[in-house]
Amino acid sequence: MTLATQTHGTAKAFLAAGAFWFLAGTVFGLIAAIHLVAPEFFNNVPFLVFGRTRPVHVNTVIFGFTASTLIGCAYYYVPALLRTPLWSERLGWVSWFSWNLTVLSGFFTFPFGFTQGREYAEYLWIFDVSLVVAMLAMIVNFTMTVATRIENVLYVSVWYALGACLWSAANYPIGNVMWHPLTGALPGLLDSVFLWFYGHNLVGMLLTPLSIAVVYYVVPRVARTPLYSHTLSLIGFWTLVSMYAHIGGHHILQAPIPNWLKTISVVDSVAMIVPVFTVLVNVWLTARGHGARLWRDPAARFIMAGTAWYLVTCIQGPLQSLPSIQKVTHFTNWTIGHAHIAVLGFSGMIALGGLWHILPLVTGRPLHSPRLVNLQFALLTFGLAGFFAVLTAAGLIQGEAWHNGETVYRVLPEIAVYMALRAMFGVSILAASAIGLYVAIMSLRPAPGSVPATSCGTSLHPAPNSVPATSCGGTPKSSCTATVPDQEAAP
Amino acid sequence: MKMTPALAMVGSLLVFWASVLVAIILPAITMTETPSTAWRPWTSAETAGHDLYVKNGCSYCHSLYVRVSDWDLGADRIAERGDYAGQNPAILGTERTGPDLSQDGGEHPDDWHWAHFTNPRYTRPLSLMPSWEFLGWPAVSNLTAYVQSLGSRDADYRVARQQRWKAPAVRAYAGGPDVNVDWLHAQVPAGWLAMPNPYPATEAALQRGQKIYEGFCLNCHGPVGDGQGVAEKYLSPPPLNFTTLKRHLAQGRYVGGLFYYQIMNGITGTAMPYFKHELESEKIWDVSNFMAVRFLGYTDAGTAPRGIEAAYEPAWSNAFQSLAPKGVRP
């Protein structure tokens, strides 16, 4: 069995890449943070200047760390939930290479001034193509795995994984204006409408569904209980796609875009409370009574923390789309705080939870060190919570000062201490990412004299005592048992 | 409801494309590209500068639209859709670590920008902006051309005014300190020339003035006020050497109102910006007293004519060499 066809090879490769990009992307985040404390720290070093390092950080943590890790999880749980092998590991590797080529390109283009310059859409056209190829490969692979499945019922995680690939494969070319290869942009203000439709859906139609899919997969397994409600999972899925996708206009709410676009952006931003709370209620009622089990499991601890960050993010999000609030918070570090709890707190924590839950399933061995995973959780929680607090404080100071007639320049000294604290909390996050990479490498490394990792292929077949999933009945406590036997694969 | 592959994939994709129809296709059809009255096309240098703005990530710290609620730079011109016609790409920005730049054209003369791009702290000591010296020439020149175009026709009007006043300012400087000071004074309304600093130069006031000086004036006018700050070599005319105003004491002329007016209003055509957006009244009087006491060796604070003392004013006598008889105000 070669590397290209090894069972779970694609999943392992994406998980390893995600752990690596977490560290690499966070290094660039810290470099950018240092600029805002001491702007001459890397004076006149062209490839480390703020405007060039920030896009490396942003794109690497979104596409490299969070999305790669979540895709790695999907490459495991989609076949597992369908009780069938992945349709093609080779095609999986194609998606891995082309996806990671795009992420890697950021390190060799942006620092040297090669960028399309639009926030979240910076990758050059050729690497846009590479990313879309990866998504198309995933769509084909997952669709064919569904087509050849043994398990008839599609569990909710599978819906979200399929949806995320399909929606993002449409969203990405639109937002990157891929039919204009040279600029990746449209002339005029319309470009911002396209850009923020995409930028918003990068989180909403890629990271959110992939994260929720992992939550729905891991929580019932660790709690050893069926999902609370099939109906709620249906409501959450359909309201997400019907309400999230068209509200990107709230990112340019105060720019001269059409008023009707502003109106639907605000109204349905508030309506986002529906998909968020249905998912959270469903997950938390599934977890109810099993808190100790979830807390003691290093992976599930990450997942549950991720759902808490999801709650905070998605209370903040609708509120800051309201014009009277956004008037103060927009353009400030408040927004940076929000972006970090969305991508690192919600998606990132859940991606890490998925990583630590699924790594033992794909290697067939326990994690190298659950204690180090718990340390990573502590460092990340400390770093992110502090980061969020100081940036929110800085943002309120900026927004209120500007709104009361102070100039941007006058307010810079007022946020200086918060910029220093942010860099300090960033060090904690960086340490967490380094620990994560170490544990991932040690866990993936073939143990000397051990049985080959492929033994976990048994997880693809239903255990004799398993109850077939019956989510079609719509009754509570019926839809998740299909996943439980997978646990037996881990020795 | 049973989720079949067809429902999950085709159904959800249909719902997504409905959103694309509403939020992408409808705006693409209905949003007009009619240029605003201020709009004009870019020159080749401005286009090259815009390209640098995009490629170096300037948009991560600077926005390019003024909102209805803004008070800062450019607040007199709210952004219109037609301002962006044909700009490719028009990157609006999401953060204001630096100020909005959409109306920055003509706020400063070109030489101010050259010093600022070389090291932003040369002109703005508290700035968090990175140095762009490494870009070299002509990149800095093109970036300057782009920034000077921001605001389009409104910017052109301001740039023309900068150029209109630059020539006499340079000529006056070339004429030597006497000519220069006379020319500078001739641009200040008479009422301000006959006005002493109305507020006492107490130790606290001088400390406040010093903090303002360090945050706004230091790197052009220098730590000893001789106009030899780090930005000096980029600027034409160079920053004023305040010590040339020492003669005012012997000549019985005031400096308080003079400083106040020039700090408030700036000297268009030179690198001296107006500070009325950033510094409210007391801060300007305090920095005026600081400059007078530290660089000229005297202040006219407390000298007649003046009105009733402000309620907070402590008992203060002008111990600095002064136009006023010592102890005039117990």
Summarize the structure in words.
The complex is a heterodimer of chains A (491) and B (330). Chain A has 491 residues and is mainly alpha-helical. Chain A has helices spanning 9-35, 50-82, 89-109, 125-147, 156-175, 190-223, 230-244, 259-271, 273-287, 291-296, 298-321, 323-329, 333-363, 370-403, 408-444. Chain A has one domain: Cytochrome C Oxidase, Chain A, CATH 1.20.210. Helices cover 69% and strands 0% of the residues of chain A. Chain A starts with 8 loop residues before the first helix and ends in a 47-residue tail after the last helix. Mean pLDDT of chain A is 91; it is low at 452-491. Chain B has helices at 5-30, 44-55, 110-118, 120-123, 139-149, 152-174, 177-186, 190-193, 203-216, 218-221, 247-251, 256-265, 281-296. Chain B folds into two domains: 44-158, Cytochrome c-like domain (Cytochrome Bc1 Complex, Chain D, domain 2); 175-296, Cytochrome Bc1 Complex, Chain D, domain 2 (Orthogonal Bundle), CATH 1.10.760. By secondary structure, chain B is mainly α. At the A-B interface, helix 2, helix 4, helix 5, helix 6 and helix 7 of A face helix 1 of B.
SSE topology:
The complex is a heterodimer of chains A (491) and B (330).
Chain A lengths: L8 H27 L14 H33 L6 H21 L15 H23 L8 H20 L14 H34 L6 H15 L14 H13 L1 H15 L3 H6 L1 H24 L1 H7 L3 H31 L6 H34 L4 H37 L47
Chain B lengths: L4 H26 L13 H12 L54 H9 L1 H4 L15 H11 L2 H23 L2 H10 L3 H4 L9 H14 L1 H4 L25 H5 L4 H10 L15 H16 L34
Helix pairs in contact in B: 2-5, 3-5, 6-7, 9-13, 12-13
Could you provide a short overview of the structure?
Chain A has helices spanning 9-35, 50-82, 89-109, 125-147, 156-175, 190-223, 230-244, 259-271, 273-287, 291-296, 298-321, 323-329, 333-363, 370-403, 408-444. Chain A has 491 residues and is an all-alpha fold. In chain A, helix 1 runs antiparallel to helix 15 and helix 2 (50-82) packs across helix 6.
